[in-house]
TrEMBL record:
GO terms for molecular function: ATP binding; ATP hydrolysis activity. This is ORC1-type DNA replication protein. Residues 1-19 have a biased composition (Polar residues). ATP binds at residues 220, 232. It comes from the Archaea. Belongs to the CDC6/cdc18 family. GO terms for biological process: cell division; DNA replication.
DNA sequence: CTTCCACGGGAAGTCACGGATG
DNA sequence: CATCCGTGACTTCCCGTGGAAG
């Protein structure tokens, strides 16, 4: 709850334990993920709106329910934290405002039931998650816990989209008082979502109950990213180590992609590290480009490692077709290949319908290019799949898994023979 | 404009599993 | 212990549909 001090002095400026001869960073912590900027000039308007929505809490009624949406790295979480800190500060200075803020991430809580259990755990401060009971009992348990809190309750649910269409709790919570589950308390819910479609897929009754106001965080443009980076760079780096092109290039890369400040900062940080590791005194454009490649590869690796075996098999099937130069391939072809591969590996074979789901999900995660096609009376409509990620890197990473590495090795050999990697 | 392919995708149902409950 | 709960991963079934060919 208490605002963490931002001063860290653990960046060694003087002696270089590993013998680096150059100085790049003056305060590296500014570039870390958990660094909280104290100002958000690019989001003044959004901060204002949040303030307006929270303001009723200071007048003894419930704050408006609030919905923040926008892609990752747009400052949603930082903005809400910032405003809640201010509100908390205010509450502490007033005798008649008793505030309870519960902040949680719905990440990995894929249903209302799970989310309720998670909230209970959060309020109980770390005890284990209840389970095994029916949903309504779980909700009742949650209300019991809520009754133990202060008069004004604000529940922040980050990544709220992960509960998908199972949104009963989102309907229940805002109406807890109306429905008599809570008597003397005011409750409001702040939802944060990366998924822009989530809002449209919510059931109408939830929309009605949850949506007092919504605030969109539009992607930063390159100019905004540049100012954000400049503010950070000023504190993070030693004077004069930044080549003129570096920040604009980081901004441009990030803006082209998702407009994510997080991504831009990561790029800048990585570029700085590369310069440092190479004993370069100045960070150049080349460092940024290298940083981008490294980060991109890391992103793929992380995603791929978390794939289930069946996901890997589906991906491998498309990779194999790619090596045979038969991509883009339609579902049927991929499925044939999949059956071959599954047979070789003696793994259980799923039905085509299921493999299609796996392929779709691989598309969503950015590993495959998925294209719909319609060839009318001769062909009808169908999907076409091809590999989106770098073939060599993909084979490398998949080869690390010893359940499938035999097949991957063979494929790598064929690909090498064909000069594809 | 109509036809109609072959796939997409929704729905419903089965199964196995971890944890709770009495 | 038997039994119940929610859930994810799966299969089975079947209706709906975009758009090139005619």
């Amino acid at each position: 709850m208490s605002g963490d001090g931002a001063n860290s002095s653990d960046t060694g400026l003087n002696s270089n334990p590993y013998g680096s001869t150059v100085e790049i960073f003056s305060d590296e912590s500014v570039l870390k993920e958990d660094w909280q900027p104290e100002k958000l000039p690019e989001r003044e308007k959004e901060l204002d709106e949040i303030r307006n929505a929270l303001a009723p809490a200071t007048r003894g009624v419930n704050a408006h329910n609030l919905f923040l949406y926008g892609k990752t790295g747009q400052g949603k979480t930082v903005a809400i934290d910032h405003e809640l800190d201010l509100l908390n500060e205010y509450a502490n200075s007033q005798d008649d405002l008793e505030l309870s803020v519960i902040k949680t991430s719905a990440n990995n809580q894929s249903t209302s039931y799970q989310l309720a259990a998670h909230l209970i755990k959060e309020i109980r401060d770390g005890s284990k998650k209840p389970s095994g009971i029916d949903q309504q009992s779980m909700f009742d348990l949650l209300y019991d816990e809520l009754r133990g809190l202060n008069e004004t309750i604000i529940i922040v649910i980050d990544e709220i989209d992960s509960i998908g269409s199972n949104d009963d709790l989102l309907y229940e919570l805002p109406r807890a008082r109306k429905n008599g589950h809570l008597e003397d308390q005011w409750i409001s819910v702040i939802g944060i979502s990366n998924d822009l479609e989530f809002r449209d897929n919510l059931s109408p009754k939830v929309k009605d109950s949850l949506y007092d106001s919504e605030i969109e965080f539009a992607p930063y443009n390159a100019n905004q990213l540049t100012s954000i980076l400049e503010r950070r760079a000023e504190r993070a780096f030693v004077d004069g180590v930044l080549d003129g092109d570096v920040i604009p290039l980081c901004s441009a890369f990030a803006a082209q992609d998702e407009g994510s400040a997080r991504q831009a900062i990561r790029l800048l940080y990585k570029a700085g590290e590369l310069a440092l590791n190479n004993d370069n005194e100045v960070i150049h454009e080349s460092h940024v480009r290298e940083a981008r490649d490294i980060l991109e590869r890391k992103r793929i690796e992380e995603g791929m490692r978390s794939l289930t075996t069946q996901d890997q098999l589906a991906l491998l099937s498309v990779v194999a077709l790619e090596i045979d130069e038969e991509t883009p391939a339609r579902t049927r072809q991929v499925y044939q290949k999949y059956k071959d591969i599954a047979a070789i590996l003696d793994s259980n074979q799923l039905v085509e319908r299921r493999v299609r789901d796996h392929l779709q999900s691989l598309g969503m995660q950015g590993f495959l290019i998925v294209e719909t096609r319609n060839r009318g009376i001769q062909g009808g409509s169908h999907y076409r799949f091809e590999v989106k990620t770098d073939l060599e890197a993909t084979l490398d990473i998949l080869g690390e898994d010893n359940r499938i590495d035999d097949v991957v090795e063979d494929l790598t050999d064929i690909a090498t023979a064909k000069n594809l990697v």
